[in-house]
Hints:
Strand content: 15-25%
CATH class of the largest domain: Mainly Beta
Structural class: alpha+beta
Strand order of the largest sheet: 3-2-1-4-7
Radius of gyration: 25 Å
Shape: elongated
Order of helices and strands: HHEEEEEEE
Distance between the termini: 5 Å
Number of domains: 2
CATH superfamily of the largest domain: Cupredoxins -  blue copper proteins
Amino acid sequence: SPVMEELITFHDHAFMAMSLISFLVLYALLSTLTTKLTNTSITDAQEMETIWTILPAIILILIALPSLRILYLTDEVNDPSFTIKSIGHQWYWTYEYTDYGGLIFNSYMLPPLFLNPGDLRLLEVDNRVVLPIEAPVRMMITSQDVLHSWTIPTLGLKTDAVPGRLNQTVFTA
């Protein structure tokens, strides 16, 4: 999904900044430990203190701005093609396609005896949710009894299902 592509790009961006900082600190530490030269005038360097105070603030801003952009991108609610309501129960999920005459079905996890070779234990269900490709979908997520987590990792989605609260997320597969 476009959101997951943005998350991967942000991860790479933050990892590069973290790697450069780590290598710079490691180089400074090793050069300080291995050199025999000492300089007493470095304790009075106002310019150096200004640089190592302002530089981390600039790096934090360069990491925070893309992060805020992704946060606002994930909360965008465009005009969705259709809405699916997902209700978490203790051991199963109930899905309701509200735009198609109230089509409702339950999705139960398959017991290990019914798994085929290659199926993933604790992830296979008897009724799967069918989602369109390249169409915005609004998921309204709630819970009947306890806290649940509705997630599709490949789309970069994770929304908590809380009893008494209706959370929504919009995504495009």
